[in-house]
């Protein structure tokens, strides 16, 4: 019988060889880098993602926002309540469809965008990665996302 410690073949079950482990650790540590950047803005990372989606398209329905963030509306609702309490957004029933909840940036939420525009460069500097490297990484991760969520 072969001793696993002396074999030259890679250990397929070694933790450091697992894509899922690398993604989990990278996600956790990268999100942690955002905390000291976002705290002065009064935002958590999940709230920042909501704001990014709203800066991209404002106003949005709850459903549109949930789809963009790949979250369930029930998961998104507490985030929206906190953002509304801090004056970043306003939630109200749509005037065209009262079943739809409309999410709109307040003036304060819109003004925050100018400060937030500095965040990607700050994160890149913290990671000591070039913008080009981060683009390649993002594109690769988007390939993983597409491959793991095949269209119906």
Concise structural overview:
Helix content is 59%, strand content 8%. The protein has 152 residues and is mostly helical.
State the oligomer.
Answer: single chain
* Largest sheet descriptor: 3 strands, antiparallel
Mean pLDDT figure: 90
Compute the number of helices: 7
Give the termini distance in whole angstroms.
Answer: 46 Å
Which architecture of the domain at 42-129 would the CATH scheme give at its second level?
Orthogonal Bundle
CATH H-level name of the domain at 42-129... which superfamily? Winged helix-like DNA-binding domain superfamily/Winged helix DNA-binding domain
- What is the CATH class name of the domain at 42-129? Mainly Alpha
Structural class call reads mainly alpha
**Into which percent range does the helicity of residues fall?**
55-70%
Q: What sequence of helices (H) and strands (E) makes up the elements? A: HHEHHEEHHH
Low-confidence stretches: none
The CATH topology assignment of the domain at 42-129 is Arc Repressor Mutant, subunit A
Strand order of the largest sheet: 1-3-2
- How many beta strands in the DSSP annotation? 3
Rg over CA atoms? 20 Å
Q: Given the C-alpha coordinates, what overall shape results?
A: globular
**Beta-strand fraction estimate:** 5-15%
């Amino acid at each position: 019988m072969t001793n696993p410690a002396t074999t030259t073949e890679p250990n397929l079950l070694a933790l450091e060889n697992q894509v899922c482990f690398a993604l989990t650790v990278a996600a956790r540590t990268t999100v942690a880098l955002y905390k000291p950047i976002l705290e002065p803005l009064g935002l958590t990372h999940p709230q920042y993602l909501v704001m990014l989606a709203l800066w991209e398209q404002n106003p949005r329905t709850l459903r549109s926002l949930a789809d963009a963030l790949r979250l369930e509306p029930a998961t998104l609702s507490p985030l929206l309540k906190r953002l509304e309490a801090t004056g970043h957004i306003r939630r109200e029933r749509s005037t065209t469809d009262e079943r739809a909840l409309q999410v709109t940036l307040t003036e304060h939420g819109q003004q925050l965008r100018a400060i937030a525009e500095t965040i990607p460069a700050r994160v890149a500097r913290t990671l000591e990665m070039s913008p080009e490297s981060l683009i390649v990484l993002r594109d690769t991760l988007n390939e993983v996302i597409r491959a793991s969520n095949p269209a119906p």
